[in-house]
Design goal:
Elements (H helix, E strand, L loop, with lengths): L19 H11 L1 E4 L5 H18 L8 H8 L2 E3 L15 E5 L6 H6 L3 H10 L4 E11 L6 E5 L7 E2 L4 E6 L10 E3 L15 E2 L9 H4 L3 E3 L6 E5 L4 E3 L8 E9 L4 E4 L5 E8 L6 E5 L1 E2 L2
Parallel strand pairs: 14-17
Antiparallel strand pairs: 1-11, 2-3, 3-4, 4-13, 4-15, 5-9, 5-12, 6-14, 7-11, 7-13, 8-10, 8-12, 15-16
Length: about 290
């Protein structure tokens, strides 16, 4: 990947430049942070090409050389459940997401460790970074369904709920093609119940009127990113436009966060992104959930 390191371009939604201290203070107060131009145009182009290739894998259109990688990728893609058609105009499937991308995509494995990304995360979390999730979310033109308002930590087996999720946009994201919505300062509410996330295109994002009134659109230009606390209430509207909205979603945490299960048994290994004396992964023994 062609990494282009940026300096002094950490912006909030009002467009004001922030230094590292202001950036961290804004995140801790509001629960989110927008960083403009996190990726270079060359980075974005490479990611878009890889997304096209993964759609071809899902359709069984891979070359012989890519067959093994495509077989792995097909086990991790999910089709759009509310799509009107099974395929797009180019006969590629209408996909909703691809999980565990680091297992079959060098491009997205490298992106998780992009120096611009790591620099922001270390300022927010600390020097030692582990990767909890590596996902691509798709909102195909005319097909992308809504994602109901929710908190990530309500579904994740990690305590305390202090992870940071990053959404990196590969297209210009607008309200028309289903950009992210956040509820500022909702990371201070504690963990709550939210139900199902995938929703019909015309469905409301939440049944809770008091929450719906507080949601705010977060438009992003291609290559820009939204960082948000794992307790931040967020979602996204449908894509009824002729333009796709594709994003990479990564979730990170520090070693102080524990892996938990109901009975306190089990193990799980997480990739190390930075720090931890150069280790490449770290095994966690489960503790009993509180």
């Amino acid at each position: 990947m062609l990494f282009q390191v940026l300096y002094g371009k950490l912006n909030d939604l009002s467009g004001g430049k922030m230094d590292k201290n202001a950036q961290k203070a804004f995140f801790e107060k509001e629960g989110y942070l927008v960083v403009e131009n996190l990726l270079s145009p060359a980075d974005v182009e490479e990611c878009q090409a890889e997304i096209q290739l993964l759609h071809q894998f899902a359709a069984g259109q891979e070359s012989d050389a890519d067959k093994e990688r495509a077989d792995v990728a097909r086990r991790h893609v999910q089709r759009e459940p509310f799509a009107k058609d099974e395929t797009q105009g180019d006969r590629l499937p209408v996909l909703r997401k691809a999980e565990n991308t680091r297992q079959y995509s060098e491009v997205f494995r490298n992106l998780a460790q992009h120096p611009n990304l790591v620099a922001v995360l270390q300022n927010l979390i600390g020097e030692d970074l582990l990767l909890f999730r590596s996902t691509l979310m798709f909102k195909p033109a005319f097909h992308g369904s809504s994602h109901g308002l929710h908190q990530d930590s309500a579904y994740w087996p990690m305590e305390p709920p202090r992870l940071v999720t990053v959404s990196i946009s590969f297209n210009d994201a607008t309200p028309e093609n289903g950009c992210f919505k956040v509820v500022p300062r909702s990371h201070l509410w504690g963990v709550q119940e939210w139900g199902g996330i995938a929703r019909q295109q015309d469905a409301e994002l939440t049944d809770r009127e008091e929450v719906a009134k507080q949601q705010m659109d977060v438009p992003l230009s291609a290559g820009s990113a939204l960082f948000f606390h794992s307790l931040m209430v967020h979602g996204s509207g449908p894509n009824a436009s002729p333009r796709p909205r594709n994003t990479a979603l990564y979730a990170y945490f520090s070693p102080e966060v524990r892996y938990v299960t109901k009975d306190g048994t089990g193990e799980r290994t997480f990739p190390v992104v930075a720090g931890l004396n150069g280790k490449t992964e770290l095994k966690f023994t489960a503790q009993k959930a509180s």
